[in-house]
């Protein structure tokens, strides 16, 4: 469906993906959020959130090349979690009933 032309990192740390649509018999028109998984399948780099993109269509009159800009995917550091829980013993103390006398 698409052919990746280039995947580069710009000076701001964003990832620019330039791709070309493969001509096919069927005409399709996809919004930008549906193109993100298709681009991710064809790129070796893990992409972050989409910043810049447009609707993609292979009809005549539309461009053949598109440029999408993504944020760089950053893994969040794992938080250290205490796995050992302190043991707590609960005692019930019951007072004995005192009968008067």
Measured between the Cα atoms of the first and last residue, the distance is 97 Å
Residue share in β-strands = 25-35%
Mean of all residue-level pLDDT scores: 83
Helix and strand sequence: EEEHEEE
List the helices and strands and how they pair.
Layout: E1 2-9, E2 15-21, E3 29-30, H1 32-42, E4 47-52, E5 56-57, E6 65-72
Antiparallel strand pairs: 1-2, 2-6, 3-5, 4-6
Short note summarizing the structure:
The protein is mostly beta strands. The protein has one domain (2-72). Helices cover 11% and strands 33% of the residues.
Structural key phrases:
33% strand, two-stranded antiparallel sheet, 101 residues, single chain, elongated, four-stranded antiparallel beta sheet
Would you write up a description of this structure?
The chain is mainly β and 101 residues long. It has one domain. It has one helix and six strands, in the order E-E-E-H-E-E-E. It has one helix at 32-42; strands spanning 2-9, 15-21, 29-30, 47-52, 56-57, 65-72. The strands form two sheets. Strands 1-2-6-4 form a four-stranded antiparallel β-sheet, with helices on one face. A two-stranded antiparallel sheet has the order 3-5. The longest helix has 11 residues, at 32-42.
